[in-house]
Amino acid sequence: MALSSLSLLLMLSTLLSTSESNNQVCDAWNGYDEAQCGIQASSLSKILIKGGTVVNAHHQEIADVYVENGIIVAVKPNIKVGDDVTVLDATGKYVMPGGIDPHTHLAMEFMGTETIDDFFSGQAAALAGGTTMHIDFVIPVNGSLSAGFKAYERKAENSCMDYGFHMAITKWDEVVAEEMEIMVKEKGINSFKFFMAYKGSLMVNDELLLEGFKRCKSFGALAMVHAENGDAVFEGQKRMIELGITGPEGHALSRPPMLEGEATTRAIRLASFVNVPLYVVHVMSIDAMEEIANARKSVMLSCLFVYSEIDNDIDRFLLKDGGFYCITYMVVNISLLENSSILTRSLKALLSSSDKFIIILGFPCFIIFSYFRYVMSPPIRASGHNKALQAALSSGVLQLVGTDHCPFTSTQKSFGIDDFRKIPNGVNGIEERMHLVWHTMVESGKISPTDYVRLTSTECARIFNIYPRKGAILAGSDADIIILNPNSSFEITARSHHSRLDTNVFEGMKGKGKVEVTIAGGRIVWENDQLKVVPGSGKYIEMPPFSYLFDGIEKADAKYLSSLHAPVKRFNSAT
Predict the structure, then answer these.
(1) CA angle 379-380-385, nearest 5°?
(2) Domain presence at residue 1
(3) What is the full DSSP assignment across 170-189?
(4) SS3 418
(5) 348 falls within a domain
(6) What is the Cα–Cα distance from 51 to 93, expressed in whole angstroms?
(7) 144: pLDDT strictly greater than 80
(8) Phi and psi for 422 in degrees, rounded to 5?
């Protein structure tokens, strides 16, 4: 079948999948009425959660939780309240801090298009899945951090839950250096991301990386890296095209684990040279994970903090981020992409997939995007990487679980049908993360409920210096709370999710452990499988610099300088 025919079938299939989609969230600003959008003008109320097992990162206990004016007022047994209080029975269920997703890309302009979820639809999906705050990445406008921040302020005007910002650095000059200080001291940003990949667009070289690391250290901001060797990836892409491998399998083949491992160790060594804490995002391979593990064990590199993020689907994706594990990487492996023929792969998937297909001119037309939808960077790895990353998460080598929620529709993904280099990179996960981590890690016995809270909420709040306002069920903390029923089941489908995405990378996954109630800022926003969200109700959370990761940095610097015995006096050889 010619590629032109495939393109036609793809478009027809896309139209079918989109028209039959039954997503429950719409754009509140596109003329839909409030009932259609699940919008309800809820106000702050007094809430009592009775009889649940309250879980924090350090302990759990059976207690009541009383909320008033958006704040947790008391956590203790047998709280008595008046008739004006909404009472939620949590007997036999877990009461936990709402999830904090440390890595998202809403309304992000990338590779000639924009992610399909904006700050309203993406956040609404998050709330339905038990996440009550996320940290998004501001992308500079023509290199300008200030212009980028203003653009993202506008993007976030319709937010329905709390959010914070990281800032990407895509070029270097004195203006950028000065703007970094403004972002930290005036805009509430305490982390900066440097891309070691995406040559020709976002990638920075080692000189810029060192300059950025030094500025981060001086302001108490966390340095973050996307660790892949961009020059080698570019060479790998050329190699695949020369071999005639143009389909989505070329994406993973062009950027093997060794390139992630090389960039990870280079970032670690450079951060150690500067003596600045490091956050490696979306760790995807054993190669990168082992570099992180070695750094954390090393006395020489003991100042380093490596953050890791895990993907939602344990059996299909792997973990992501050094110290930060992406839920998608937790569950997917490269066997999905191993055949070189797009049609062969599509037909093979058709036999084992529940995705819809249609018959056109006698040809079974599987939605080609079933493969394109898995394209992300770093890419899905061979079977075995995900299990190793899960083990690293449970043992503490990796510290966090995030999503890198960066969704593109099947139409957008089809931009690369003739060239994998043009496929927009990214998948969904913001709604699925909490359920999949529970099912994959807690239900299976790999981690405890307290570990779950640490990995999905508390450690993120600590790293980005907003604990205990966020990430805790304590008196005085924000009332961002979930009630999870460990005996309830869930199933993930594109028809029922709340993202605007027309597919779901975790399609058909089932598991135990369901978020039945989400409370965000003291409002019940998810209950009885219904969303009650208000555009514009979300707040920007400023994150102060100098988190606990910077403890001991000055002492380490002083020890290093004293070891040099500087300055050294020398005599001129001529005398």
Answers:
(1) 120
(2) no
(3) ---SHHHHHHHHHHHHHS--
(4) coil
(5) no
(6) 8
(7) yes
(8) -100, 0
The two tokens of residue 531 are: 């969303």
Q: Give bridge partners of residue 401 from the DSSP assignment.
A: 325
Give the span between the Cα atoms of 188 and 210, in whole angstroms: 23
Query: Can you give the pLDDT at residue 45?
Result: 83
For 160-171, the pLDDT digits (tens) are 999 999 999 999
Residue range of the domain that includes 156: 99-321+358-467+485-510
Give exposure, 497-523, as e/b (b: 16+ Cβ within 10 Å).
bbbbbbbbbbbebebebbbbbbbbbbb
What is the domain count for the chain? 1
For residues 420-431, average pLDDT: 95
Q: Taking the CA of residue 318 as centre, how many other CA atoms within 13 Å lie in the half-sphere pointing to its CB?
A: 33
SS3 sequence of 34-49: HHHHCECCCCCCCEEE
SS3 (DSSP) at 33? coil
Q: Which residue blocks in 275-310 are alpha helix, DSSP H?
A: 286-297
Asked if residue 523 lies in contact with residue 537, where contact means CB atoms within 8 angstroms, the answer is yes
Q: Give the pLDDT band (50/70/90) at residue 371.
A: low
Domain at 140, CATH number: 3.20.20.140
Position 289 pLDDT exceeds 50: yes
Taking CA atoms, 389 is separated from 62, 285, 395, 431, in Å, by 32, 7, 10, 21
More confident residue, 344 or 91: 91
Residues in a beta bridge with 88: 49
For the residues 148-155, what does the mean pLDDT come to? 98
Q: What is the Rg, in whole angstroms, of the alpha carbon atoms belonging to the chain?
A: 24
Q: What are the backbone angles phi and psi of residue 545, rounded to the nearest 5°? A: -80, 180
Q: 519 in a domain, yes or no?
A: no
Q: Considering Cα of 379, then 380, then 382, then 385, what sign does the dihedral take?
A: positive
* Torsion of the alpha carbons at 310, 311, 317 and 319, rounded to the nearest 10: -10
Residue 291 lies in a domain: yes
Residues forming a β-bridge with 192: 167, 223
Sequence-ordered list of residues with C-beta below 8 angstroms from that of 332, at least 6 positions apart, any chain: 311, 313, 315, 316, 317, 318, 374, 380, 386, 505
- What SS3 state is found at 88? strand
- What's the pTM value of the predicted model, to 2 decimals? 0.88
Question: φ and ψ at 122, to 5 degrees?
Answer: -65, -40
pLDDT 10s digits, 388-403: 988 999 998 888 889 9
